[in-house]
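quick one, 149 residues, struct below
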Amino acid sequence: MLEIFDGALDVEEILSRWYNHFKDKNYGAFINFVGIVRDENGIDGLSFDIYEPILKEWFDSWQKKAKKEGAYLLMAHAKGDVLNHKTSYISAVLSPQRKVSLRMIGEFVEDFKANAPIWKYDLVDGQRVYAKDRSYLIEGSGLLYKGEK
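---
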């Protein structure tokens, strides 16, 4: 399940909804990761642009990997502005045993940071400033340049 929201994510609503939907589906582990915008370097928050067709392809490829291990992935991300101390990203892995979920959540989050087609901007004095120093080149992206690390 991939969900995109305008602005900051409602962590309690999303995690509660996910938990209530899957709690009786016989998964033994529900491991989640919540990304909170930090107050650093004088920014007021972050802003995100998302290329949804490629994000869906990327997510679907991960969902296929998860399925091979009896797991299921969930992800929510914000588009637009997210102020400091608010949430921009939530992901979760459900699996029959905890070891699969614990391993997969780490791999998924790291691959998300490197390969998901989401462009990040710092919010500074009401302006969006491209965060090139924290961006990565998406392999084969052509014009969909995210920067380089």
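The domain at 2-131 is CATH 3.90.1170.40 (Aldehyde Oxidoreductase; domain 3).
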